[in-house]
Structures are given as structure tokens and as C-alpha cells.
Design goal:
Helix content is 42%, strand content 22%. It is built from eleven helices and twelve strands. Strands 1, 2, 3, 4, 5, 6, 7 and 12 form an eight-stranded mixed β-sheet that branches. The longest helix has 26 residues. It is globular and about 60 Å long. The protein binds alpha-D-galactopyranose. The site of alpha-D-galactopyranose has 12 residues, from helix 5.
Length: 391
């Protein structure tokens, strides 16, 4: 479904459900992660992009203390009151994203809002694809409710509010990548993030290349502990390096590959494997930035393949399906690079491709995937697009 169609549906549903026009409509896109995996919570670097699909959130203030959320795509409604805004433990757990965002927008004291709100939201980001549909929902909620309640957070602060909603309401200890990419995306450009200083820079991709997302059918669930255990291993490793290196180490951002090689012996085998992934990814993002400046997209693509190998061998956040997609991509000359995108353990691969060969690439990868797994992956060309905003 195109964005305009989604917008029309959300607005029509709002009118049907609540009567009239909503006071505000906000839009926020999903994201692809291009290079730099699991570096955000290690205060490192990432190349990502906002995509041309997202979530629309239409809302008005309520006359009373009621909060009503209508999830168009699920055909479900969730109702509560300001005093009862809290984590939804079962059933309509989708409500945790907008509710958590609202809660932290109000500083954890939603009753201070005085009035509740009514909202309808809907989107076109495929769920479970690793395209951050949840961050898109949080950022659309944040922008719409900021307008309704007159708060004045900047984009980085709104991104952090969404992240806090993930941590406390949705139960995923994510970094800031998804929310920041949705907020700072720009048409035709990548977002280069530095998560130590929370700086977000748009870098042009140049002509003649595009991204193709290939969605595996492997389950992608970050809330089930695998993500949290990877994050914990990185934090344990950073603590260890802070005791053996003669410098300040607060995060793996502070540790070089050479230092990892020299001192890894003091870590358990598994923790050492986990730690080397973000350390290598930071180096790849910095190399990638220099390559993009020179317009060397083939060499940039090679770094994407290296990134996937690191996921496969060290971080172990890949899976058979994602590996098969990357292996199939490697045999196609019009693909410059491919890697898993986002948390991992399922979801999608991000391919850097020659767009004129898109059909051939999609067909060849689908054929090989189907021969092995029996079903077909979903291949779609992605246009780096503008970030979130009010309509
Ligand atoms: C998920 C998380 C992000 C980031 C990526 C991996 O998308 O939500 O914060 O850690 O995984 O890079």
C-alpha cells in the first residue's frame, strides 16, 4: 500500500470512529540498517536510512481523562485512563509503543496531561521484517502528542523517549538507532550516526545504486532475550577492557581491534566473540565513510559482506535463512554488498545493488531461497527517504 493510501485510511477511520478531523496527524518512517550492527548501545557508529514506508498517527485531545488507541492494521482498540497508563502485559501489547511514548513524553506522570487523547494509527511497514515498525509508531506518536500537549523536546530527545518506551513498556533494551534513523532520515541520503555524541549527519549515496531488502521468513523477535544477552556480553567486555587498558573505557567504542587481539585472553570465549563484532563494525563504518566520499561503492559493499561474516561467526545473530540470502547475493555481480540488517535472528538482509538489475537479482535470490526453504522471501527496492514529521 502506498503512503497516500495509508494516510487516507487512517484519516477516514478517525472520522468514522470519533467524528470529524483529528487535530493532528504525524508520519514516521521505518529504517534500514546499512553498516554498523549492534554498535549503537556500544556508543559507536552506524550508517542507516529512513525508508519510504511508515506509520501515520492521527490524534485529538479527549474531553475527559480517557486514552483511546485504534490500531487500524490489527482492527483492535485499546482503552484506558490517564491514571491507568502502564505496561500492557498481555493481549493488546501493541499498545505499549504509543502508551510508553505518551508516558515518557509526560515525564512518567501522564495524569499531568489533564486530558486524555484519542488516536488512530496505521502503516505499511511489513511486521517482523526488521524495518523498525515499532520505532516508526513511537516517533509518529511522539510528534503527534508533542503537538497536542505542547511539549518542546527536540528530535534527539523524542528519539530517546521512544527508546525509553521500548525499554520499560515493550521490554526490549534497544539502542537509539531505530528512533534516530526515523527522525533524521533524508531523501536520497544515508544517516551517519555517532552514538557517543548523538550526532546525525546525512551523507549522499550518489547515483546508480539502490538498496534491496530481502525479507526472510525466519522469525524475528528481539524481545525474547537473545538481543539482551548480546548487549550484556558487550557491557561485560567493556568493563573488562576498562580494567586492563591504561585509558578510559566506558563502552566498546573505546576499544580498538588491536587491543581486542592483545587482551581478549582474559575474556571467556563467548564474550570475546561478542565483543569483537561491534569493535569491527565501528572500524568498518569509518572506512565506509571514507569510501563513500570517494564514491567507491564496490569497496563499501565489500564491507557489508564483512559485516555479515562478523555477525555469522562472532556475534551469532544471523540464521540459516539470512546466511543463504547473503550467499546467493555474493554470486550476483550486480549486488555490491549484503548483510543482515537490524537486531538479527531473522528479519531481513540489506543489499546494495545496481537498480537496473533489480528484477534479475530478486528472481535469482528467490529461486535459490525457495529451493532450500520451500517458500519465497519478499524482495523490495528501498528508497532512502525523509524522516518523520507532522502532516
Ligand atoms: C535493533 C535495535 C537497535 C540496534 C539494532 C542492531 O534494531 O532496536 O537499537 O541495536 O538492532 O544494530
Amino acid at each position: 500500500m502506498q503512503n497516500q493510501e495509508v494516510y487516507d485510511k487512517v484519516v477516514a477511520e478517525f472520522a468514522a470512529k470519533f467524528g470529524g478531523k483529528s487535530e493532528v496527524v504525524a508520519y514516521a518512517p521505518g529504517r534500514i540498517e546499512v553498516l554498523g550492527n549492534h554498535t549503537d548501545y556500544n556508543e559507536g557508529y552506524v550508517f542507516s536510512a529512513a525508508i519510504d514506508k511508515g506509520t501515520f498517527f492521527a490524534a485529538s485531545l479527549a474531553d475527559d481523562d480517557k486514552v483511546t488507541l485504534v490500531a487500524l492494521d490489527m482492527g483492535e482498540t485499546y482503552e484506558t485512563t490517564l491514571a491507568e497508563v502502564k505496561k500492557v502485559e498481555s493481549g493488546a501489547t501493541w499498545a505499549n509503543y504509543p502508551l510508553g511514548t505518551f508516558n515518557w513524553l509526560l515525564g512518567g506522570e501522564p495524569t499531568k496531561a489533564g486530558k486524555g487523547f484519542k488516536a488512530v494509527f496505521g502503516g505499511n511497514i511489513p511486521l517482523g521484517a526488521g524495518l523498525s515498525s515499532s520505532a516508526a509508531l513511537e516517533m509518529a506518536t511522539a510528534l503527534a502528542l508533542q503537538k497536542l500537549y505542547g511539549t518542546s523536546f527536540d528530535r534527539t530527545e523524542l528519539a530517546k523517549i521512544g527508546q525509553k518506551a521500548e525499554h520499560t513498556f515493550a521490554g526490549c533494551p534497544c539502542g537509539l538507532l531505530d528512533q534516530a534513523s526515523s527522525m533524521f532520515g533524508k531523501a536520497g541520503a544515508l544517516v551517519k550516526s555517532d552514538f557517543r555524541f548523538n550526532t546525525f549527519e546525512n551523507v549522499s549515496m550518489g547515483e546508480g545504486v539502490a538498496f534491496m531488502m530481502v525479507k526472510s521468513n525466519a522469525k524475528h523477535a528481539l524481545v525474547d532475550g537473545a538481543y539482551a544477552s548480546r548487549r550484556q556480553a558487550c557491557e561485560d567486555a567493556a568493563k573488562y577492557f576498562s580494567t586492563v587498558l591504561r585509558k578510559s573505557v566506558t563502552h566498546l567504542r573505546d576499544v580498538s581491534m588491536a587491543e581486542w587481539v592483545l587482551y581478549r585472553g582474559g575474556l571467556s570465549e563467548t564474550t570475546a566473540k561478542r565483543a569483537v563484532h561491534p569493535i569491527g563494525e565501528d572500524e568498518r563504518v569509518l572506512q565506509g565513510a571514507a569510501l563513500l566520499e570517494k564514491g567507491d561503492l564496490k569497496a563499501f559493499g565489500a564491507l557489508m559482506y564483512d559485516s555479515h561474516e562478523s555477525s555469522r561467526n562472532w556475534f551469532e545473530n544471523s540464521c540459516e535463512e539470512l546466511d543463504a540470502i547473503v550467499d546467493a547475493a555474493k554470486a550476483i555481480p550486480e549486488v555490491y554488498g549484503a548483510r543482515l540488517s537490524g537486531g538479527g535472528f531473522g528479519g531481513s538482509c540489506c543489499l546494495l545493488v545496481d537498480p537496473t538489475a533489480a528484477d534479475k537479482i530478486a528472481e535469482q535470490i528467490s529461486r535459490e531461497y525457495k529451493a532450500r526453504f520451500g517458500d519465497e522471501p519478499v524482495c523490495s527496492l528501498i528508497k532512502p527517504s525523509d524522516g518523520a514529521g507532522l502532516i
